[in-house]
């Protein structure tokens, strides 16, 4: 039995012979076979973009809803005066229905024509005989109410012969890259990269450590660097898909265009993702508890979603916290992406943001690799 | 720098090996040798230090003291040398959860890619009888099938040394026999096997030599036959009596040792026929009514009881 060992017959390999390729392929397969992960990475941001994009879309301007009491002797006269005026929608309704609709806000103002000349008991006597007396009823607590008062006043006064003394010209179009959806889309891309980098790397490592699969890897001759690089490679495959999906969706659905260079967007996204993976490397370095890791990843993401200006500008936060906000990696990626996508800037203009991202990435990977535990 | 010596060096040589954890000495200084081409079983109860020992040999756990060589090559001669050692060892850890979303084929191909040489996945799957399941996701496999996949991953790199940590714990008897056959086939082709177990049947069936381990120490090491023979008594009489065990049993002619075993008493004897008349007469004389009496050939279990005073599976 104890004769010298001969190695069992070695044969050609099936499948990829490069460990890096094999690990990367495995990670990609695992990811695409997880429907929940696919939804959070691809479905959720698109849904957010649709919802917020529609909610904040500048649609046709809502007209002022004017109500006139049916059966009132002056109603016909008011109707004639306001007829066809831009921005006014006039309806004639019973008096109690008017009050009800005013309370609900589906009518902004009620107009009663009281005839010409001073009426007995009228609070304010009009100047001069023969001037029309009009009573306006509205809710001054509503913006629409106050606006309706001015619009109706204006329309009536002009219809009754008031002369305008100045010529007003208007510029109301919103320049490209300044709509809310233009602001939102780069924020969603950055948020998406943060989430998928953290969960894609941190969660996977911790889950494999918990399942003692890391130890199993550690007793093979696989290079440690291949293990690390397989995360980066598989993430970059999905990063490409994520960014293209969101930018493409923005272009098709909302006509969002990249004002700067698409290559610059790509570079920013890669640096940003590396930075977030550095954070994931720290979170995933030691723990074998998926719950602990999830907690830390939520702790990392949620405050940044708010502080870093994903949905609204962080300028609204107090001056004192601005330095902290500026130092966050998500802020850096948001600002960098917006500068390139919305303002057409180049990489030179976003060097400070790139520096912040690189700093987080380098420190993260340094700590993560130094403290990494295979068991 | 020492290279491999596959012709003359033992597959594994541990010298004064020790692993100290903050509150326990898991391995308390052992010398252990696995000869090339043999199957060595490390037999011991839970917590004996078997896993710690094997994981130090696999290079997974750093020893607190001592030295380990694999085919003459010590661990810790640099990353390249350590990788070379990993390349000749096939490992099945006590517990591994492979990725549930990957298929058997994909899992095996991934492990295959880690090794400089390897056997074909077809051969390995045939060996562990999983050919029919190649396309099945790991998450859908039974416990026995997962265990066989773990064995397949240990074999895929065409190792010279196979390290199996309690490979059959929790398996049904049929899966257990199947796994034994794979190990025997590997050894028949010249492979070396290091195996831990707390089943003495497994050690008796597979091992050329057995190292009995308890409390971090190797307390006996020899062939199964020699270990049993070392008892100097190859038969065991087990008695169940009413009331307290009587005195004087160990003074009877032919009785080598007397030990309690649960509620029963075990006598190690050389020859049952020679002991029995005296034993029955003695029980009669002291008035201890016999409830049950059985005899069996001495086993590794009896060796363990003899050396530690405890049963293996307590
Ligand atoms: N990582 C560890 N930290 C602390 N104690 C450990 C660790 N691993 C094992 N031990 C202890 O070392 C002893 C031996 O454990 P182990 O080698 O797993 O035994 P076996 O495999 O024989 O059941 C046990 O007391 C166990 O609790
Ligand atoms: Mg164990």
Description:
The complex is a heterodimer of chains A (375) and B (314). With 375 residues, chain A is an alpha/beta fold. Chain A is built from 13 helices and 4 strands. Chain A has helices at residues 19-32, 35-55, 75-82, 95-104, 143-159, 180-210, 213-218, 224-254, 262-283, 290-307, 322-327, 329-341, 351-371; strands at residues 64-69, 88-93, 109-116, 132-138. A 4-stranded mixed beta sheet of chain A has the order 2-1-3-4. In chain A, helix 8 (224-254) packs across helix 9, helix 9 (262-283) packs antiparallel against helix 12 (329-341) and helix 12 (329-341) packs antiparallel against helix 13. The radius of gyration of chain A is 32 Å and the shape is elongated. Chain B is α/β, with parallel strands linked by helices and 314 residues long. Chain B folds into 2 domains: 12-227, 3-Layer(aba) Sandwich (Rossmann fold); 232-297, YebC, transcriptional regulation domain (Alpha-Beta Plaits, 2-Layer Sandwich), CATH 3.30.70.980. Chain B has helices spanning 50-57, 79-88, 104-114, 121-127, 143-155, 173-188, 200-206, 224-229, 272-286, 300-308, and strands at residues 12-21, 24-34, 39-43, 65-70, 73-74, 89-92, 161-165, 192-197, 209-214, 217-222, 235-241, 255-261, 264-269, 290-297. In chain B, the strands form 3 sheets. A 6-stranded mixed beta sheet of chain B has the order 6-7-8-3-9-10, sandwiched between helices. Chain B has a 4-stranded antiparallel beta sheet with strand order 2-1-4-5, covered by helices on one side. A 4-stranded antiparallel beta sheet of chain B has the order 12-13-11-14. In chain B, helix 6 (173-188) links the parallel strand 7 (161-165) and strand 8. Chain B starts with 11 loop residues before the first strand and ends in a 6-residue tail after the last helix. The mean pLDDT of chain B is 91. Classes of the chains: A alpha/beta (375), B alpha/beta (314). Bound molecules: adenosine-5'-diphosphate and magnesium ion. Adenosine-5'-diphosphate is lined by residues 21, 24, 26, 44, 46-52 of chain B. Magnesium ion (MG) is lined by residues 50-51, 94, 165-166 of chain B.
